[in-house]
Amino acid sequence: MRRMTATFAALRKSRRVSQLELSLRAGVSQRHLSCIETGRARAGRETLIALLDALGATLEERNQALLAAGYAPAHAERALDAPEMAPVRAALGQLLHAHDQTPALVLDGEYNVVMTNAGLARLLALLGLPAEAMPGRPLNLLRIVFAPDGLRALCINEAELCGEMWARASREAEHLPRLRALLDELRATLQPWGRIEPGGLPVLALRLRATDGRTLSFFSAFTSFGTPLDITLASLKVEHLFPADEATRAALAGAGGVASD
């Protein structure tokens, strides 16, 4: 019981939600909620799930809270290569390869690179970074970008891009302990990025320096699965890097002879 009360109270406070606000959201009296958090009452499974729903808890946080309360977890965490995940792999492959001219990759919750397409191989070749030269396995996008000699060294708008990427990962890490540990590891090598004035595009642009001196400009779009019921599936996102100008589109088309992994 003590473990459950500590887990749930920490989750509520991490969301910066008061007991009164949570009680109103979940339809549970504040007195009963207080008793649950102090261990004087045990939340039933349905009540606990209602409270977790009201907090917007991640699937992993829901499982942790349910286990701490003595209940079976509600969500599985299947490996992506499990047989029952075949439809998911097929959907990801379709998203990646439908437009192979557009660099795309699949990331998990810790920014590990799970899948890539031919467009990404072409981009890496233009940057002089063949995939086999990337450090470590599995490949991790944060390590690739934020390592001292990483991709940020080729980024013309380094402060703008890295500041936004770090801020986004930091927000996600509030609820993902493994991602938080990775950011803590990388933080020592980083300089602080202050507020950056946005550019002319309505989206954040990624401007990279190719080996031939050309500037390659992209903007990104993310796709994720709606209403996922599996922890692995909930963590996955597909990032497409769309060319922001005709010169970049032409450069990718000209690199079409490069093969994918």
Automatic annotation (TrEMBL):
It comes from the Bacteria. GO terms for molecular function: DNA binding. PANTHER family: BLL4672 PROTEIN-RELATED (PTHR35010), BLL5781 PROTEIN (PTHR35010:SF4). This is XRE family transcriptional regulator. It comes from Pelomonas aquatica. Residues 8-62 form the HTH cro/C1-type domain. SUPFAM superfamilies: lambda repressor-like DNA-binding domains. The lineage of its organism: Bacteria, Pseudomonadati, Pseudomonadota, Betaproteobacteria, Burkholderiales.
